[in-house]
């Protein structure tokens, strides 16, 4: 049966028309998106995550619209299908730190509390720097200057890695939150001046990688003051100045941008200039973010000492 | 279509969760009447906390499972939630009901107590006996009543010391000893309930609406009454909920004991009160709280109600309480000794 006819039947919607076949459609209740899930456990995780985060934070998410029978999905030929609102207007980031902080803080808090719930979502392994070094040595077709920069970066990356390990050893807890990828600021949409977060359908990630990328994007777009405001807003819902903040700091110290750059150069050696330009920017952003985050975490500790 | 062309403080994001696009919104207190092409709805704003809203949703789902049809249903959001908590407010949506304006006043309470009886009858459960629960409830109520009695005694003593008493104070003092007797009788019935519960080693709880009166029931033209506003719903003894509704209903007319008998009959068609529950109900009703409350209002008077109106209110309540006394002994406890033993 045609998907739109199924949707009509399952949701009691009418006047349906594809905007993009099998992806988005127009209904009398606005634009909607169909997502097909092949992994039921992942789907159920997403249903629960969205419901809980939305209820606990009061922020709208692209939750699963319920069928006429109150179910969050229906079975289709390709797996399980869910329907979501499709919003186009983008929610701002600068000046809206409180709303973002509420979303991220609640997600971290819930993600940490339910850290042990689903063992299949593992933390990504740290980058084996030796392998990165080997790849740099093998890069022959790139500009020799770029190669020298990468070789020097490797030593700095090594220092960052060691620092991350040292910090990790200082903290008591090893527990990590499970999060959906908060990678793109553009996934924040606006509904009547309110934040509407699009979770997507990706595998959740254990650890702080999603927060690191979001903070990097935020820093580049909105600068230092706004990033500090965002961290303060997260702190209202989740104690980021404690051990969990240190874990985030170690995540930011991991030199993943070097690994990414080297692997890009391996396949697209003729775009060396652009890739290296991007690499310098990323490296600089991470450096500034680590400094800001470190100072922000230390801020209160210094105040306590000064008193 | 979803558009963001609405004022920033609008309820657009709440209605978005119902996929409702209003053509007209009217405000009635805490309720917004939402007129849409799909129908007319009532959006209620309440100050329930997240936990209270959770319990409220649970209550409504439970009543739905029990097939209790005489309530105004909640309409779930497109995500299946019965309530939406936003900031410190909780919202929920119900169909807009049109009341039957023709229904005679004297029929209203009969319908109300019939529905309360249905609600209690459907949800009644014998609870696991806990002496501690009985003792705590008994002691808490006793302490509260004693505190109230002392406040009234203080008011009476102060009034007596005055050279010229106000008409209100004079009326109060005229009836004071009778009120004191009522408070004592209430305490004795409470003790009787306590002792019988301990002896029987059992007590019942029902789902109590918590504040049912004419303002929380829609009188449908089909003759049924539909209950709403379960925000204060709790599991408690039927006697307490029944007493609350009795007290609230007293205020509409100069109540008579025959009306009380009718109300009780309408209620007991669905759930018969057990002996100890009757004692508890009697103690709640006979304790002269409505009169004490009248005093509270008088003490806080700001001139919007005249002295004469206060006296009239007090007199009306004293008459009601006298009739309550007759009702308790002649109707409710007619097969038992009229007074509990010392």
Automatic annotation (TrEMBL), chain A:
This is Uncharacterized protein. It comes from the Bacteria.
TrEMBL record, chain B:
InterPro entries: Aminoglycoside_PTrfase, CotS-like, Kinase-like_dom_sf, Spore_coat_YsxE. The keyword Transmembrane does not apply. Pfam families: APH. Keywords: Capsid protein, Virion. One of its GO terms (cellular component) is endospore-forming forespore. SUPFAM superfamilies: Protein kinase-like (PK-like). The keyword NAD does not apply. Residues 34-270 form the Aminoglycoside phosphotransferase domain. This is Spore coat protein YsxE. It comes from Anaerobacillus isosaccharinicus.
């Amino acid at each position: 049966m045609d998907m739109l006819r199924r949707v009509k039947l399952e949701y009691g919607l009418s006047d349906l028309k594809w905007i993009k076949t099998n992806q988005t459609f127009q209904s009398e209740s606005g634009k909607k998106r169909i997502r097909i899930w092949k992994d039921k456990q992942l789907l159920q995780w997403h249903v629960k995550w969205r419901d809980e985060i939305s209820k606990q934070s009061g922020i709208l998410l692209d939750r699963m619209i319920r069928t006429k029978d109150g179910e969050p999905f229906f079975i289709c030929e390709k797996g399980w299908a869910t329907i979501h609102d499709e919003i186009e207007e983008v929610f701002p980031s600068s000046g809206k730190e409180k709303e973002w902080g509420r979303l991220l803080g609640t997600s971290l808090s819930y993600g940490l509390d339910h850290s042990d719930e689903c063992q299949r979502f593992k933390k990504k392994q740290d980058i084996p720097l030796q392998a990165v070094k080997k790849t740099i040595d093998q890069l022959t077709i790139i500009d020799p200057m770029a190669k020298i920069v990468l070789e020097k970066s490797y030593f700095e990356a090594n220092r960052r890695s060691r620092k991350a390990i040292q910090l990790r050893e200082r903290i008591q807890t090893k527990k990590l939150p499970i999060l959906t990828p908060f990678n793109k600021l553009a996934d924040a949409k606006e509904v009547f001046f309110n934040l509407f977060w699009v979770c997507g359908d990706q595998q959740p990630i254990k650890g702080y990688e999603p927060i690191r990328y979001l903070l990097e994007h935020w820093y580049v777009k909105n600068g230092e003051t706004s990033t500090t405001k965002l961290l303060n807003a997260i702190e209202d819902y989740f104690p980021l100045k404690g051990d969990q903040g240190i874990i985030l700091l170690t995540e930011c110290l991991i030199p993943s941008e070097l690994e990414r750059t080297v692997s890009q150069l391996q396949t697209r050696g003729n775009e060396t200039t652009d890739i290296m330009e991007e690499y310098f920017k990323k490296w600089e952003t991470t450096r500034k973010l680590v400094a800001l985050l470190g100072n922000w975490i230390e801020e209160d500790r210094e105040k306590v000492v000064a008193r | 279509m979803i558009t963001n062309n609405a004022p920033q403080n609008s309820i657009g994001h709440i209605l978005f969760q119902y996929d409702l696009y209003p053509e007209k919104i009217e405000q009635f207190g805490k309720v917004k009447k939402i007129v849409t092409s799909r129908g007319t709805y009532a959006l209620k704003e309440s100050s329930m906390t997240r936990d209270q809203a959770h319990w409220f949703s649970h209550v409504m789902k439970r009543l739905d499972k029990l097939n209790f049809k005489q309530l105004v249903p909640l309409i779930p959001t497109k995500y299946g939630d019965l309530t939406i908590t936003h900031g410190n407010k909780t919202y929920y949506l119900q169909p807009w009901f049109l009341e039957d304006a023709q229904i005679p006043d004297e029929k209203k309470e009969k319908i109300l107590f019939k529905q309360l009886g249905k609600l209690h009858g459907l949800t009644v459960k014998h609870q696991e006996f806990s002496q501690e629960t009985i003792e705590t409830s008994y002691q808490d109520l006793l302490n509260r009543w004693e505190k109230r009695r002392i406040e009234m005694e203080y008011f009476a003593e102060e009034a007596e010391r005055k050279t010229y008493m106000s008409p209100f104070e004079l009326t109060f003092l005229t009836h004071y000893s009778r009120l004191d007797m009522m408070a004592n009788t209430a305490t004795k019935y409470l003790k009787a309930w306590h002792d019988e519960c301990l002896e029987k080693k059992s007590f019942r709880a029902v789902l109590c609406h918590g504040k049912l009166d004419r303002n929380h029931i829609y009188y449908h033209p089909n003759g049924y009454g539909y209950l709403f506003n379960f925000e204060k719903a709790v599991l408690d003894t039927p006697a307490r909920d029944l007493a609350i509704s009795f007290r609230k209903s007293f205020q509409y007319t100069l109540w008579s004991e025959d009306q009380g008998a009718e109300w009780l009959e309408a209620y007991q068609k669905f759930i018969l009160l057990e002996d100890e529950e009757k004692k508890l109900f009697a103690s709640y009703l006979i304790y002269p709280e409505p009169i004490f409350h009248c005093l509270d209002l008088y003490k806080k008077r700001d001139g919007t109600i005249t002295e004469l109106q206060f006296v009239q209110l007090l007199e009306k309540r004293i008459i009601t309480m006298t009739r309550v006394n007759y009702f308790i002994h002649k109707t409710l406890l007619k097969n038992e000794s009229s007074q509990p033993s010392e």
